[in-house]
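Re: glutamic acid structure - here you go.
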Amino acid sequence: MHYYTYNRDPIGFIDKAAMEQVFREGYENGLDILERGEGKVADYIPALAKADPKDFAICGMLINGDIIAQGDIDRRFSIQSISKVINLAVALRTYGVDEVFRHVMMEPSGDEFNSIIKLDTKNSLPFNPLINAGAIEVASMLVEKYTFEEMLQFARELCMDPSIELDEEVYRSEFETGNRNRAIAYLLQSKGVLLADPQKTVDLYFKMCSLSVSAKSLAGLGLVLACDGMNPFSRESLIRPGYVRCIKSIMFTCGLYDYSGEFGVDVGIPAKSGVGGGIMCAARVPMGIGLWGPALDEHGNSIASVRALEHISHRLHLHVFDYR
Ligand code: GLU
């Protein structure tokens, strides 16, 4: 089987063995960084603090079902911020682009993901759906419309992974330590922007952050987005291509916290990361790439995964603005 990368020159068609080789090299680059002890696991909740910083896995998923695996791609961890993409997809499917972006903007914020400063002093609307304020606003559009079980079902469909469950331990910790997110919800309510009860809204937000996924589930979500919203195996359309274009654009500009600009220039793949160490990528092959390494860099992105993606993107010419 040969995969066409859209680059006629210099790679053109590459075969699976060549792709596997590139993934292996990327994985080894990531392991090298971990061997040097770089990166730190998130420690704001015990469930994340006890993660092993040396863990690392990469999964590539292609439209014919081929899987490229490095490390344990079935190990479960919490999805954290990557759930913001799922919430946004459901909101777009429910309300359409115009209505969703009447309540949240689509601009990179340049601030910490959980910052309140500009929201309080400059803007009424959150900057974008991938920072906490924006994701909480999006959750307020969904909480009266869907039960958590229905949202869980959406997550399973979009990740093509029926085994996704709520990690109760992570959820409890998120709930216990989530006062800053509650503050964001109440601030949005005080500005007349939040569309539902703050407590119920953050509860849905916490639960979605606490879904347990694997590198393979993230690759599945990345592949659906890479296929413009279609499950390539059942050929069912899950999200309209126009909505997917919007989601991938926002992932490209805002998906990796305050590293999104540099990642966009260097790696150039629409991606979203989470503090659980996951990164989900929609590559234009089309291919989904899911990575997991709980040791984070100073921006909150999996340090080994970013290093591996640099290599994989360069070698396979996956940058969206690579010459064709
Ligand atoms: N549960 C985390 C929070 O809301 C998610 C953070 C993240 O992954 O960026 O603070």
